[in-house]
Design brief:
By secondary structure, the chain is of the alpha/beta class. Helix content is 32%, strand content 17%. It is built from 17 helices and 19 strands.
Length: 511
């Protein structure tokens, strides 16, 4: 996804002149020695902005270019297999050891529990972590114009390991070494390019779509990922070429096949079913759902249409742009986007090219990410994601830090700090009941956790003992609870899995 304008050609030429195709050449007077580059990119850019100012036409473009040069050195260093020492250039620790540490972290555990909480919840009510231009990373060979101005620093596989469950692949129809005589030596290619006058600016020797699909398939087939469902967004830059669209359909069939849930056979490009759930897809044998703009040929038999604003609301943090909920408040933002009926996507674009064209390079901050989660936004779209990224912590709206502690109890309360806590199921608290996702109430009676269904039915006839599915519902719950600690319908089974528990399964839980 991009927002490039009329200056795209000039910006591309500048990128080539500044950094070279490998991202580390043509730097000129900049000293590339580790000693000279010892300050991190963040420190260097902060110093630049302090010295020059942030006037869009001068300051931000200049300082973002400094950052790009340092990142180029770091990317070249990592591609030479020196990941442990490359932080000297850009201040970012990147490598397998960081992924291993993340897999053992509380952040990963909390996000996993949060995702499982939404397993039987409509996509439009879920919080789905997303990366923008997921494929555009310098870890892939060969170096290209696209991947040396990357949106991401880790591979698709590693981003999925960081709890990303919505990924983006931009597909272009361009001359390629992977093309054949039958395709006019074109191929469907993964490229962060811009189509102008029929020319796909930025696309050079990039990888074909099949490579990205194979990486996704590999991740889905890992034993620990057998329950996971992934939303794949295909940005369509195929020039309405029927052959190109048919080749995408063939690649999807070969690469993912029956793992993909498809639009009805007689209704190609059906709008994305935003009210379906991961559990529903998985029960039918599917674990990938694909969305994009409609196209000719067989494309529409595999890809759901994004649809109108009732179905998909998308925005990027452009120049001076902040997430609307920061300014208007969650209630107003929820009304703007259809109150849980539409997929709401908000993403950043961290590329150097965008900064040069727009004169600004705003980031999706931890504050914004937290507010998006609190407002119930669906797709929170990160660039430059790393395992230590504080924004991953920021989107945990559910469990308190280092919770749940199993020894503390097997039933969950919502506490005045607005987070979940594990407690003994025999404690006495009042119960939260919901009549739809936007209507939460508190019972007058208190009791043990196991009495929740009965008390909600007795006091609030049309409500149910409930658990919030997103940060907005959690906010409404806390408004109903006030300063009280209250029971939610959320507990750990004897097998150790935390879940909202249907009444028929209560016998498997402690009284």
């Amino acid at each position: 996804m991009h927002r490039w304008g009329k200056h795209t050609v000039v910006a591309f030429a500048a990128l080539v002149a500044m950094s070279g195709i490998g991202g580390i050449g043509g730097i000129g007077a900049i000293d590339a020695s580790p000693a000279a580059a010892a300050a991190s990119a963040a420190d260097a850019v902060a110093g630049c902005r302090s010295a020059i100012g942030t006037v869009p036409q001068v300051g931000e473009r200049s300082c973002r270019s400094v950052e790009q040069v340092l990142r180029g050195f770091a990317n070249g260093c990592r591609n030479l297999g020196q990941a442990d020492t490359c932080a000297v250039f850009d201040g970012r620790q990147v490598g397998p050891s960081h992924m291993q540490a993340y897999a053992k972290s509380w952040t990963h555990r909390a996000l996993t529990l949060q995702r499982e909480l939404d397993d039987d919840v409509a996509f439009a009510r879920s919080t789905i972590l997303h990366t923008h231009n997921t494929f555009n990373s310098p870890v892939y060979a060969p170096p290209t114009l696209t991947n040396q101005d990357p949106n991401q620093i880790y591979s698709i596989f590693d981003q999925l390991q960081m709890d990303i469950r919505a990924i983006e692949m931009d597909v272009h129809w361009v001359p390629s070494a992977y093309g054949t005589a039958n395709t006019g030596f074109n191929a469907v290619t993964l490229c962060h390019g811009q189509v102008q006058a029929g020319v796909h600016l930025g696309c050079t020797i990039d990888r074909p779509l099949e490579f990205g699909l194979a990486e996704l398939r590999n991740w889905l087939e890992q034993p620990e990922n057998k329950r996971e469902v992934v939303l794949l967004y295909l940005e369509n830059n195929l020039d309405e070429n029927v052959l190109a669209h048919d080749l995408v359909a063939q690649a999807l069939q070969r690469g993912l096949g029956d793992l993909i849930v498809r639009p009805p056979a007689d209704k190609p490009c059906t709008p994305l079913p935003t009210l379906t759930t991961p559990a529903t897809l998985r029960a039918a044998g599917h674990r990938v759902i694909i969305v994009g703009d409609c196209g000719p040929g067989a494309w529409g038999s595999w890809v759901f249409e994004r649809g109108d604003k009732k179905n998909w609301v998308e925005s990027g943090s452009g120049p001076g742009g902040d997430y609307p909920g920061l300014k208007t408040g969650c209630a107003t933002e929820r009304k703007r986007v259809g109150s849980g009926q539409a997929i709401v996507r908000w993403y950043e674009d961290s590329t150097w090219l965008t900064a040069m064209v727009e004169g600004d390079s705003p980031q999706l901050t931890s504050i914004e990410a937290s507010k998006m989660a609190a407002c119930g936004a669906t797709l929170i779209g990160f660039d430059q994601l790393t395992p230590e990224d504080p924004r991953l912590n920021a989107v945990v709206w559910s469990w308190a830090k280092n919770e749940p502690v199993q020894s503390a109890g097997r039933c969950a309360t919502s506490a005045p700090d607005s987070y979940f806590h594990a407690k003994p199921c025999t404690e006495r608290h009042r119960f939260v009941c919901a009549n739809g996702p936007d209507h939460w109430q508190l019972t007058k009676a208190a009791g043990r956790w196991s009495e929740g269904v009965k008390v909600c039915r007795r006091e609030l006839r049309y409500s149910r003992f409930a658990t919030p599915a997103n940060g907005w519902e959690n906010t409404l719950l806390r408004q109903a609870a006030g300063s009280r600690e209250v029971w939610m319908n959320y507990a750990s089974t004897r097998a150790g899995r935390w879940m909202p528990v249907p009444a028929k399964q209560y016998s498997f839980l402690p009284a």
